[in-house]
Write a structure and sequence with these properties.
Layout: H1 20-24, H2 31-49, H3 53-58, H4 66-92, H5 101-106
Length: about 110
């Protein structure tokens, strides 16, 4: 990890991120896990409060077609899935599935 890498919870000068999850994290998590869990918390909240597609469309400050809004939502959801797949792929394709990375490096 470089000196410029974020290190939530690892120093008294921990940066404030604006994310309630990241700002209260104890430092047990790596920055990647903190960000993923924080993002999931935001997504779960959105699921609870989001309205219908029509209500979402009405929230735009400039006119937009329903088709363009649909493409925007679905396109970004696909982007989130691709990024999550890239983040988790190294853990899912471990050479020896009977041990974790920590187990492999401890030997």
């Amino acid at each position: 990890m470089t000196k410029s890498a974020r290190t939530f919870g690892r120093s008294p000068q921990r940066p404030t991120t604006g994310c309630p999850h990241a700002d209260r994290v104890s430092g047990m998590e790596t920055p990647m896990i903190t960000d993923m869990v924080g993002a999931m918390s935001h997504l779960e909240h959105l699921v609870e409060v989001v309205g219908t597609p029509e209500q979402e469309l009405a929230a735009y400050t400039t006119p937009i077609t329903p088709e363009r809004h649909r493409d925007y939502v679905l396109g970004n959801a696909a982007r989130i899935r691709r990024a999550l797949d890239q983040l988790t792929a190294p853990y899912e394709t471990a050479a020896d599935t009977s041990t974790t990375t920590a187990d492999n490096t401890a030997a």
